[in-house]
Amino acid sequence: MMTEKLFCFGLGFSARLVADRLRDEGWKIAGTTRSTDKADALRAQGIEPYIFSDDTPVSDIQTALDGVTHILVSAPPGGNGDPVLAHHAHDLAALPDGTWIGYLSTTGVYGDRDGAVVTEDDDLLPSGKRGRRRVAAEKAWFDLGRRHGLCVQSFRLAGIYGPGRNALETVRSGRARRVVKAGQVFSRIHVNDIAQTVLASIKRPDAGAAYNVCDDDAAPPQDVIAYASGLLGMDPPPEEDFATADLSPMAASFYEDNKRVANDRIKAELGVKLRFTDYKSGLLTLHDEIMAKINGTKAKIR
């Protein structure tokens, strides 16, 4: 029986967790990183590494893709489009028919909906430059799949959080702010639920499918910071009016879009049962894990 092999273009926060779980199931894992130091670390962890960046293609792509049964793409598009397709579209087109390709996109493809609910059937109306690049990249991946018989799926990820990357860490570091924009809500997703959704898609492949990957509770960002502060026994930072808050252009851009993202499709079609249905359950578990590490005990199972 052939061993399945996953190749990741980009082994970031979300893709790495998917790779680790499949490696634990006996899959071969290969993937890209930007530096030789990180490549050495990946090799030591049982992952076959390759160097890749926007301006550096994989030097031995034929070896890299040899025996690959699944591809996961987390490299973001840049000013020149999707870097993976720019360098390796021809190589990917030569993969066997039906090869599974997962593209990690964002809910930013929907743009601003003034707080309304969006589903995967809604038009893609991105607000800013990053969103427009994502829409173009999604289209290019789906086009590649249709033309060459590849099983491409897109995962539109909401705001990602998880161990080491969450509101608790922001509050503890003193960097937290409670910027209030009336009526503003964001959807979020715990990295563990991203991984289980991608793994569910691998088991139930559907060429051309797009999936919103988010929890059940779109919420104002200031509420998340207040809850995290409460868990830590700290006073929350003061509220700041968005209209007068001193924000960098990047920080301000996150407030351009206001929408509630529906996640019914991952539940109905992939059988996903979210472990963390809202930010409170996710942060509470992360808090338990932080305190267990500090105290040298085991985290509670919730």
Description:
This protein has 302 residues and is α/β, with parallel strands linked by helices. It has a domain at 5-160 and 189-215 and 261-274: 3-Layer(aba) Sandwich (Rossmann fold). The protein is 38% helix and 18% strand. It is built from eleven helices and 13 strands. It has helices at 13-24, 36-44, 61-65, 83-93, 129-148, 167-172, 191-203, 221-231, 249-253, 264-270, 279-295; strands at residues 5-9, 28-33, 48-51, 70-73, 100-106, 117-118, 151-157, 159-161, 178-180, 188-190, 210-213, 239-241, 260-261. Strands 3-2-1-4-5-7-11 form a seven-stranded parallel beta sheet, sandwiched between helices. Helix 4 (83-93) links the parallel strand 4 (70-73) and strand 5 (100-106). The longest helix has 20 residues, at 129-148. The mean pLDDT is 96.
Fold-level CATH name of the domain at 5-160 and 189-215 and 261-274:
Rossmann fold
Mean pLDDT: 96
Strand order of the largest sheet: 3-2-1-4-5-7-11
User: Could you name the CATH class of the domain at 5-160 and 189-215 and 261-274?
Assistant: Alpha Beta
Structural class: alpha/beta
Strand content: 15-25%
Query: Using only CA atoms, what is the Rg?
Result: 20 Å
Q: Terminal Cα separation, in Å?
A: 38 Å
What is the multimeric organization of the chains shown? single chain
Named at the architecture level, the CATH assignment of the domain at 5-160 and 189-215 and 261-274 is 3-Layer(aba) Sandwich
Order of helices and strands: EHEHEHEHEEHEEHEEHEHEHEHH
> What would you give as the CATH superfamily of the domain at 5-160 and 189-215 and 261-274?
NAD(P)-binding Rossmann-like Domain
**Unreliable stretches covering 5 or more consecutive residues:** none
Helix share of residues?
25-40%
Largest sheet, in brief, is: 7 strands, parallel
Shape: globular
Number of helical regions: 11
Number of strands: 13
